[in-house]
Amino acid sequence: MSALANTSPVEYDDAEYGIPAVCYCGERPNLQPSFTLTNPGRLHYTCRNREDGDYHIFNWWDEAMMEELKTVKEDLIKLTSLNQMREALQRQKEEIANILNMHKENQMELERMKALIAYKSDGLTMELKLTNVFVATLVIVATMTYFFK
Ligand SMILES: [Zn+2]
């Protein structure tokens, strides 16, 4: 069952709106011509139990058709709107996928940069150690040269 089928009866929760499916008494309405002087031959929905004095369905067929058309037109507008929303959601979904891919690539680049920094940092530490050893050796040689001259 579609969402539209659920929404329409809520807005028109009236058995006499549009083509009636069932009468208040539970009977299926009949389509009959009118025999009155004011509406001769005009089709209408009525109930076979109408003679019992209770309240029964009565809808002019032409009015019911116009109401049905109005409902269909409104459903069509909702459907178009739903399709537009679905398309917009699809575009957003693709955009999110692109952003996630970019994020993944950035993470990989970040890891690569971290590894590079760690490598460079190790090289720098080694260079500093070698420089320290060289300077210490120079100091020792200079000191020895000074004392044993
Ligand atoms: Zn009835």
From TrEMBL:
Keyword annotations of the record: Coiled coil, Membrane, Transmembrane, Transmembrane helix
Organism of this sequence: Camelina sativa
Listed name of the protein: Uncharacterized protein At4g04775-like
Positions of transmembrane segments: 130-148
Coiled coil regions, renumbered to chain: 79-109
